[in-house]
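Our consortium's second objective concerns turning raw sequence data into structural hypotheses that experimental partners can test. To show how far this objective has progressed, the report includes one record in full. It was chosen at random from the queue rather than selected for favorable results. The single chain below, 308 residues long, was entered without modification.
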Amino acid sequence: MSVTPVESKSERRTSRNTIERRTIPRAPGRVPLNIVLGLLMVYFLVPFWWLIVNSSKSSAGLFGGGSSLWFADDIDYVQNFIDLFTYGGGIYARWLANSALYAIVGGIGATALAVLAGYGLAKYTFAGRRFSFAILLGAVMVPTTALVIPTFVLFAQVGWTNTIWAVIFPTLLNPFGVYLMNVYARDAVPDELLDAARVDGAGEFRTFFTVALPLLRPAIVTVLLLSVVASWNNYFLPLVMLSDNRLFPVTVGIGLWQSTASTYGAAGGQSLWSIIVLGSLVSVIPLIIAFLTLQRYWRGGLAIGSLK
């Protein structure tokens, strides 16, 4: 008596999928697209690789004539780190702390205002809503650098220049964040769900905090991340507002070192180029960590907000 082997359902499904994968031809349009994506990836990664390589070199190694895209013989990250955080009485650590303060306070404040304004424009009907939304769309098109000088004139009249508030207050206004929250709230928070909460006796504040706010979480993280990155990378606003170098963020501080090195070649007998390169590398590490830890919420917010 012979026994015929019986193929299980999972095996048949696996073999069918394997055959389908083998028979489905790849779309010819993907090859140029992959080439373009590969070139873009190289374009964005080469400057970061340049920072990693050259932050290991001394000032002599930077200008010694070797390849700028590969390490020198004397890799010395430790000494460069010591020079970076001890030069000028440790002013670089203070600049990093200032950037963190401006980014966290400005980012959280801008996100809170964007959530409230975007939710209000999306879910409430009031006189002037269309006009307010038109003003919002117009504000998105205005570059923030164009408003720096008028803001400086206003702050100078009230004595707020050269203070931390001169950097934090302008960053609280984020028209793009309000627009994103408005678009997201209209799609992600059903009106029927809000009406059901009101019928159950919940007030407007309780409805917002217990029903709407959890549904807005991906967009909140997205706006928070974009606001923090914009505040961290802000250069022109603190450059105009601040004159005390102890209040500088890291962007303006590195710019100060770069102008000093370009003008005088060295400061106090020490060349600044090696710590400028390493300081630039250290300044982007917090942003990379933030993107990697929050990318799940960030990508979800962009996709559902129809910006992808």
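The partners drew two points from this record. Residues 193 and 211 are 8 Å apart (CA to CA). Residues 91-123 form the longest helix (33 residues). Both points have been shared with the crystallography group to help prioritize constructs.
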